[in-house]
Amino acid sequence: MRLGISICALLTCTGTTLAAEAANVSQPYSIWMATSFLFKAQSKIDRHYVAGVLHEGMQKAATLHSNTTLLSGVSTAISSLVSSDGTLTGWDPDYYSLDDIRIGNNILYFWDSEGRKEDKYKIAAGHLRDQLNRYPRTPSGGFWHRSPQYKNQMWLDGIYMAETFYTTYTSYFEPENTTAWEDIALQFELIEAHTRNKTSGLLAHGYDESKKAVWADPVTGASPHVWDRAVGWYFMALVEVLQVYPKELAGYAKLKGFLTTLAEGLKKAQDQVGGWWLVMDEPYPGKKGNYIESSGTAMFAYGYLKGVRTGLLDAGYRDTAAKAYDLMVQRFVKQEKNGTLSWEGTVEVGSLDKDASYEYYIGVPLSENDGKGAGPFMFASVEMEIWKGT
Ligand SMILES: *[C@@H]1O[C@H](CO)[C@@H](O)[C@H](O)[C@H]1NC(C)=O
Ligand SMILES: *[C@@H]1O[C@H](CO)[C@@H](O)[C@H](O)[C@H]1NC(C)=O
Ligand SMILES: *[C@@H]1O[C@H](CO)[C@@H](O)[C@H](O)[C@H]1NC(C)=O
Ligand SMILES: *[C@@H]1O[C@H](CO)[C@@H](O)[C@H](O)[C@H]1NC(C)=O
Ligand SMILES: CC(=O)N[C@H]1CO[C@H](CO)[C@@H](O)[C@@H]1O
After folding, report:
1. In whole angstroms, what is the distance from residue 390 CA to residue 385 CA?
2. Contact in structure between 329 and 20 (CB atoms under 8 Å)
3. Distance 225 CA to ligand 3 centre (A)
4. Which of 22, 90, 264, 369 is deepest in the core (most CB within 10 A)?
5. Is the peptide bond before 283 cis (omega within 30 degrees of 0)?
6. First-to-last CA distance in the chain?
7. What is d(CA 246, CA 177) in angstroms, rounded to the nearest whole number?
8. Molecular function (GO) terms listed (predicted)?
9. Ligand 3 atom nearest to CA at 198
10. Contact 99, 146 (CB under 8 A)
11. Which residue has the higher pLDDT, 184 or 21?
12. Does ligand 2 have an atom closer than 6 angstroms to the CB of 154?
């Protein structure tokens, strides 16, 4: 991919970086990152959303570049999670956590792309979908982020984990189920009503409808800060759900409005170097301890690029994304001596289980080769490669 050369030409690359760069310059970053992860323990599959996101990144890269070896590796990994009778390995139907729904996207992808033949995938997806029918909800109808720990709480993260699957499932199996479509829109509407800052256009990490959490705002129930990865999940959720949401239903225009407002807010919040701060709300960008975080940056770049490509967002946002992408390649993509890539700068976690303070968020360590960042980097790379035709 040509971008690699220009970045290295502009910067003072280290000897190590240059050697790998020179020999491997023709590899698209999506494939390069995906195959690098194949050699790492991190590519081990489980039902958790991190493996789900990482494998979706690998799958997107393999599909765009017609790499059948890589694609069949991902297919085998996803298949290994589902036994022949459609049971999800180790899945407890009475454990309610939105994070565990996300793998349903990987399952439905292979069910569909492999000719809708493998019944076990359809059955497994059905189990996840059935769980949503008995899933605990807030008084207004929002799915709890997790039961019982996060009773009456909705987090932006959970909107991505559950609604992307709920949407795809509905489009495949119940396209006429208006109740389901409205329920999906409701999840977004609730999070918008309680967490959106109308001045900045950004959204707080989550809210507690009962306002009992130590961090809950007494009026809105919102948590106090805007955490970049939570907003990243949410931005991706809007873009993905709008790909399939029926245009004739009222929810479509609402979701599109949410996306437009967020896209504007994010552009204003982008740092001049091209990335986004871990804690995004004023006055924290640039403050001591805060930093430009890689997973959120990758998610925003992807959301913009796919949003523009699919006609949801104005073409001008490509420049916003390109600036972010350049930064990722120079700062977060590390080229190892053996020619593989590593991914850096991703914060390990961000949770509302503590006090949700600024000090809490900046105190969480970074992790290397974190699928929550590397996966979205592959998503963004695939979009860049489609755009550039490389
Ligand atoms: C395809 O993916 C495999 C890993 O599964 C990798 O070893 C190979 O280099 C890739 N081929 C191309 C042409 O990118
Ligand atoms: C339609 O969706 C609703 C809400 O998720 C659900 O309760 C209901 O069972 C679905 N109906 C059918 C026929 O699948
Ligand atoms: C909303 O955003 C504005 C502009 O950044 C800020 O001044 C205000 O404090 C924010 N409100 C809340 C409730 O966070
Ligand atoms: C390449 O080097 C990295 C960093 O030292 C290591 O984690 C990875 O396992 C190596 N990959 C191969 C294929 O040797
Ligand atoms: C010089 C150099 O680092 N070459 C590497 C290019 O990438 C392949 C794997 O993708 C490595 O095997 C080479 O060592």
Report:
1. 5
2. no
3. 10
4. 369
5. yes
6. 6
7. 11
8. hydrolase activity
9. 1
10. yes
11. 184
12. no
pLDDT given at position 145: 98
Domain topology for 5-388: Glycosyltransferase (1.50.10)
Q: Where are the domains of the chain?
A: 5-388
Q: Are 169 and 123 in contact (CB under 8 A)?
A: no
Pure H helices in the chain: 2-10, 15-24, 29-38, 49-64, 68-79, 103-113, 119-133, 156-173, 178-195, 228-244, 250-269, 294-309, 317-327, 358-363, 371-388
Taking the C-alpha atoms of residue 165 and residue 175, their distance in angstroms, rounded to an integer, is 14
Contact, 33 vs 378, CB < 8 A?
yes
Q: What is the pLDDT of residues 233-263, one digit of tens each?
A: 999 999 999 999 999 999 999 999 999 999 9
Decide whether any atom of ligand 5 lies within 6 Å of the 38 Cβ.
Answer: no
The pTM is what? 0.93
What's the CA angle centered on 139, arms 49 and 101, to 5 degrees?
15
**Distance (Å) of CA 373 to CA 53, 213, 339, 380:** 9, 28, 20, 11
C-alpha distance from residue 115 to each of 70, 109, 110, 112, 121 (Å): 19, 10, 8, 6, 12
Residue 271 has a CB neighbour count (10 Å cut-off) of: 16
Which atom of ligand 1 sits closest to the CA of residue 73? 5
302: its two tokens: 């992807």
CA–centroid distance, residue 28 to ligand 5 (Å): 13
184, two tokens = 């999906």
Residue 200 CB less than 6 A away from ligand 3: yes
Average of per-residue pLDDT values in the chain: 93
Among the ranges given (11-25, 83-97, 175-189, 247-261), the one the predictor scored with the smallest mean pLDDT: 11-25
Q: Is the pLDDT confidence value at 43 over 90?
A: no
